[in-house]
Amino acid sequence: xxxxxxxxxxxxxxxxxxxxxxxxxxxxxxxxxxxxxxxxxxxxxxxxxxxxxxxxxxxxxxxxxxxxxxxxxxxxxxxxxxxxxxxxxxxxxxxxxxxxxxxxxxxxxxxxxxxxxxxxxxxxxxxxxxxxxx
Length: 134
Prior knowledge:
The protein has 134 residues and is an alpha/beta fold. It is 51% helix and 16% strand. The protein has one domain (7-108): 2-Layer Sandwich (Transcription Regulator spoIIAA). It has a four-stranded parallel β-sheet. Strands 2-4 form a two-stranded parallel sheet. Helix 1 packs parallel to helix 3 and helix 6 (111-123) packs across helix 7. It starts with 6 loop residues before the first strand and ends with a helix.
């Protein structure tokens, strides 16, 4: 029997700054406590992000990963995108132009997983089996 886990899309506030960032982690906490959470943060209304906002994003990602889940970002305007790039956290998240692309990405087999598996098998098939099992 298979069950489909929901994909949760959360619209972030206009300002993801110190005063609001503390609440973000608590607001999404219930979604992060599920097994293999699949979250998308919709940045379409976000105009400002500070270091506390970045930290809240990282905390959410960490909690999702602890439970074999994932957190993806979508619709990031230029200002907040620049902050994520300057803090070098943009490389830690999968970022999509819009929410529908982010939702669709959860329904597809990740291309990087295919490449990694192929590389492991082409190097040494027995070693690939050992790595895949661990």
